[in-house]
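Could someone model S-adenosyl-L-homocysteine with this protein?
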Amino acid sequence: MKNYQPHQNRRRNDRHRADHRNTPQVEVTEGQRFPLTIKRMGINGEGIGYYKRMAVFVPGALTGEEAVVEVTSVAHRYLRAKVHRIRKASPHRVTPRDSYADTVGGFELEHLAYPQQLQFKRDIVIQSLERYQPRGFKDYDVRPTLGMDHPYEYRNKAQFQVRQTADGTVQAGLYAERSHDLVDLPTCSVQMPVTMTVMRAVVQMLQDLEVPIYDEDHNSGIVKTLVVRAAANTDDVQLTVITNSQKLPHKHQLLLRIADELPQVTSVMQNINPGKTSLIWGDETRHLAGETTITEKLGGLAFKLSARAFLQLNPAQTEVLYDQAKNALDLQPGQTLVDAYSGVGTIGLTLADTAAEVRGMDVIPEAVADAEANAQANGITNAHYSVGTAEDLLPQWAVAGFRPDAIVVDPPRTGLADTLMDTILAVHPKKLVYISCNPSTLAKDLVTLTEDYRVDYIQSVDMMPQTARCEAVVKLSRR
Ligand code: SAH
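Reply:
Sure, complex below.
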């Protein structure tokens, strides 16, 4: 809550706006407490109740619960509050495995039993459809969310900030929500165990060797962030040390200790990200020890990953997700496919054996280079990747005469550009599969796409258990 801008300050900044926007509809002040019944859950996993008809968002509260809540911020149309005391708990409430689950982001649903988490994710898809109302939405086949048998220990990457306390203790973890206060995470139930083993061992080494740790207030010190990424299907592990400068004092001893005590680490890299910035990664990555990449196996293919290359965070569910994409595309021999927003080419390459030709694109040159290298390494000659935006390249390809039978899109949370949707409607492939990590932008985009396409079904896949994040595969067919 620390960096939260109180309502009074906002009002001062927004003086040019109509004043009523900043005045609550009802008389209520920060710190005020009242009883509240939670009616439903919002897209960020928070409980929602109503106080004198004002919506109140309460992180950590569950549908059906009765609680006394304390107002933490006041806006014109809604309030934010925290749970003061729960009077009647939901039968689905469980004790979070992580003691800090209500402090840092990424554990929004850890207090909710897993079957209900899966229901929540399907409900979020339905809520989004009801909000945007794409054509025929009431009849969509919205399938139950596919979850994990063991919804913990799945994350292949730990990316922790590193800080040093006044007494010299080195800590590594995540920021408390809306702040830059580091919460040290000695354990983390959703991380693959090897990522935590390596993380905590390296933290201890930094402390023992007195490697200077970054100090945000003074923009001094060296080590800012540690990133540990593990490949679930090969046991490769990469450590990247992100530093404030080219220097890494005691590098030699650090590398010796890593080689000695952490034989599971197959690659050590340094990324340089000088100065105060909200970005975690800098532009320059250097090789320190071992291999320069790690290899992950998915769908029978091997993918080499450089330190910055994007890969889905949950390897087990990635196979489930890609299987769903494959089923939905139902490619027939001889058909052509566009893998839009391709990352390192994982989706297109796993489908290349049935397709006559696969073309993909991504805006990150390194990812495209990795995709090309991955095609080659797997002996795939009918898949090609280009650098550029989907909205630029798809029209260019269409003009040059390439009209794919099928398109799979896997955009970031912002969804599809309008110009891309226009092109899709113009190119008019028989099959279209939309993989979405944001039900709101998905529902919004479906309003346009359903002008010409029918939604056959929506299959959500739980890629991020214990969080409110929801991923869905939508099969669309030409009307
Ligand atoms: N399909 C991949 C990656 C999905 S993440 C996988 O399953 O791993 C989304 C990707 O879209 C990112 O790699 C990002 O770099 C890329 N991207 C973002 N905006 C884009 C755009 N306008 N056109 C093409 N790719 C884009």
